[in-house]
Amino acid sequence: MTGSVEEFLTARRGTGRPLLVPYVTAGVTPDWTNIVRAYADAGADAVELGFPFSDPMLDGVTIQEAAGRAIAAGTTVRGILDEVATLDAGVPLIAMTYSNLVVQRSVAEFCAALAASGLRGLIVPDSPLEEAGELADAAADAGLDLVLLAAPSSSRARLREIAERSRGFVYALTRMGTTGERGEISEGAARLGRELKELTDRPVLFGFGVSSPARAAELAGHADGVVVASALMRRLLDGARPRELGAYVASLRRALDQGAR
């Protein structure tokens, strides 16, 4: 795939398509790259790859369990990048990781290694906006889109800064707290989506708590699309194979498309 995450997603959004970015923890199973391919075949617009970390502070129990399984299997950053380098999914691949892994060598080396493997985006949820300058510069130098997170509690001035500095898309959180499947959509989340859409033409995607196809379609109505993580990883941990996970992504795709009509 050539071009940036933002160019790719903006072009797809321009066709009237709600955007869908499913997640998989890299290394969670020996055939995890087949899950990425199944997602792309089922209609994903990009795929988020979680780099397993021993203290994933923003992740709920499901992603923590998936990360623990991957770490127990011997998954390393270098191993993930070697596998990604052989993976041609046809859609952008975005790394999601934590600051500890980024700074083990240097920020510049880490970003360069991601880009060299074929990754096109990066999310580091525990990197504060006020301290993201070095990371943003290193990502830009490597040709990576650094995606920033926006919370419902943020002031309009802070949301404006996040929207201006984010690349690829703006990751809007449905709520404060950790990832996981949830029920109703709060008015705060809906308001966040509307406000970000007023502040930027960059794609806005909701994540955290996208628990079903119906919920995905409802959230997409307040933004440009959704990121789905825990609902997929729970199915994987319960034994779902790549084909079954692809089928679930296809059901999300149908619900999003039907909701946009």
From TrEMBL:
Subunit structure: Tetramer of two alpha and two beta chains.
Database matches in Gene3D superfamilies: Aldolase class I
Enzyme category, top tier: lyase
Record field: catalytic activity: (1S,2R)-1-C-(indol-3-yl)glycerol 3-phosphate + L-serine = D-glyceraldehyde 3-phosphate + L-tryptophan + H2O
NCBIfam families attached to this UniProt entry: trpA
Keyword hit for Amino-acid biosynthesis: yes
CDD domains, sorted: Tryptophan_synthase_alpha (cd04724)
Sequence similarity: Belongs to the TrpA family.
Pathway terms, separated by semicolons: Amino-acid biosynthesis; L-tryptophan biosynthesis; L-tryptophan from chorismate: step 5/5
Keywords: Amino-acid biosynthesis, Aromatic amino acid biosynthesis, Lyase, Tryptophan biosynthesis
Superkingdom per UniProt: Bacteria
Catalytic residues (positions): 48 (proton acceptor), 59 (proton acceptor)
Name of a matching Pfam family: Trp_syntA
PANTHER family: TRYPTOPHAN SYNTHASE ALPHA CHAIN, CHLOROPLASTIC (PTHR43406:SF1), TRYPTOPHAN SYNTHASE, ALPHA CHAIN (PTHR43406)
Primary gene name: trpA
Protein's name in the database: Tryptophan synthase alpha chain
Coiled coil (UniProt feature): none
Single GO molecular function: tryptophan synthase activity
